[in-house]
Amino acid sequence: MRILIVEDDPMLGEGLQVGLRQAGFHPEWVRDGEAAWQTLAHESFNAVVLDLGLPRMDGIEVLRRVRASEQKMPVLVLTARDTAQDVIAGLDSGADDYMIKPCDLGELAARLRALIRRAAGAAAPIIQIGQLSLDPASREVRYDTKLVELSPREFDLLHELMLNAGKVLTRAQLESKIYPWGEEVESNALEVHVHHLRKKTATEVIKTVRGVGYLMPK
Ligand code: CA
Questions:
Q1: Tens of pLDDT along 81-138?
Q2: How far is the CA of 117 from the centre of ligand 1 (A)?
Q3: Centre of ligand 1 from the C-alpha of residue 7, in Å
Q4: What is the mean pLDDT of the chain?
């Protein structure tokens, strides 16, 4: 799950990046509002952690622009501004959740998981499709009730496919969600992960859509 962190405080930005990485996310970090807006205009993320007091463009303005451009990804505002008016302004500008600094990293990760599953139209914390179940919090996968050992990449790929079950995902969409920014990706890496996932579960779990990408049937 790719997360954009928008934070101008270097210590906090670094801490968020390390903490979210440990929780199994792929965080990218930008340090001002203009950079956030430029990044969001060109790249896709599963969720955004947005500070409000930012250089070059205020967080509320970033939020307004993102929503005006009809981007639907969840945005969690993380800020030191803690009056009721600030919370109302954030939510009314398109934020989905709000946390006051300093925040607990475990709670932030749990809120992001909740926002991401809600954005995918799911309410239950464990995703269940046929005989497969995936728990984003514990990162456990079971097939036919048996625990399946997956690499972090295989888990991320399966999570993305299960969240979007019934939709065809292109190779580029999948690669952008499972590889950190700027990482060199071997041209057949995705096929290899899919091959392993099918071997560890069942062949019919992931369908190949020729020339496009992959699909997990609902
Ligand atoms: Ca700030």
A1: 878 888 899 999 999 999 999 899 999 999 999 999 999 888 888 999 999 999 999 9
A2: 28
A3: 6
A4: 92
Closest C-alpha to 43, from 20, 24, 27, 59? 27
pTM of this structure: 0.85
| Cα 17 to ligand 1 centre (Å) | 15
Within the chain, residue ranges assigned H as helices are: 10-22, 33-42, 59-68, 84-92, 105-119, 152-163, 171-178, 189-200
How do residues 37-59 score in pLDDT, each as one tens digit? Answer: 999 998 889 999 999 999 999 99
Distance from residue 81's CA to the centre of ligand 1 (Å): 10
Q: What is the DSSP letter of 135?
A: E
CA distances from 134 to 41, 129, 146 (A): 31, 9, 12
- The first and second tokens of residue 149, run together, are 């050992």
Query: 6 alpha carbon to ligand 1 midpoint, in Å?
Result: 9
> How much distance in Å is there from the Cα of 49 to the middle of ligand 1?
12
Ligand 1 centroid–CA 31 distance in Å is 9
DSSP labels for 175-186? Answer: HHHHS-TT----
Report residue 56: phi and psi, to 5°: 70, -35
